[in-house]
Amino acid sequence: MTSKTFAIITDIHSNFAALGKALEIIENHPHDQLICLGDCFALGPAPEKVFERLQSLEAIFIRGNHDRYLVERLWEQERPSLEGMDPDDPVCQAIVANEKWTAEQVGEAGADFIRSMHISHREVVGNTFVEFTHAWYERDDEPPTLEEAVHWRDHVQAAHPEVDQFIFIHGHVHHPRDESAENLKVLCQGATGMPFDEDPRGAVAFLTIGEFFEWDVIRFDYDKEATIQLLDDRKPPFYQNLKKTVLYAAIRNDD
Predict the structure, then answer these.
(1) d(CA 174, CA 47)
(2) Which tens digit of pLDDT belongs to each residue from 185-228?
(3) Phi, psi (5° rounding) for residue 83?
(4) What is the pTM of this model?
(5) Where do the structural domains in the chain lie, given as residue ranges?
(6) How far are the Cα atoms of 58, 186, 229 from residue 212, in angstroms, in the given order?
(7) Is 123 helix (H, G, I), strand (E, B) or coil?
């Protein structure tokens, strides 16, 4: 039986300093495949620099909901909203404006890059089936509950009777998740560029499956001051809120 190690980044959100440190860690850790679980560009200060760096990587790219907003041109809708927010809420309006600003920074080449991304990536290694997605293949803005993931496992097992271990890996929520049910594991490392778990360190993960299972999440410090300074210098829409998120690793829409 063979083994395979995946290096995972997710929810970079144009935090170029965090991405650089994450890739440095990955380059010094044995792995077979790099995979990015989406939300690469919006809500951070350096979308064009992150785009340029990601283009240089040999990786599997999964599309996130914020990536989708860019190619769908969310801001052109009559009353744009996202993730159930009130379209009249100033916070929602500022995030929508940030999506527009981000799209302008990455241009049509960035939009084409997003269009080339996958909704999910599935792979069988030995007796283990693994699926990577931003949130879920059925929806990109809410991962499955454990009960929904069990139904997913049952559906997949019917098509793959040779498999007896199932792993579902997602991003999106920006905080760690580690849940199990019988032969199923549902995992999330948190976020590479914008954690929400009150730990401002970024996160990369290494998943090994096949001969054995290993889930190793590495939290890392990076130059947060550089990210905050770039937000101050460029002043993209919603940047004051984003500065607080970088500092406190929590959604902070207070003054």
Answers:
(1) 19
(2) 999 999 999 999 999 999 999 999 998 999 999 999 999 999 99
(3) 50, 40
(4) 0.96
(5) 4-248
(6) 25, 17, 43
(7) strand
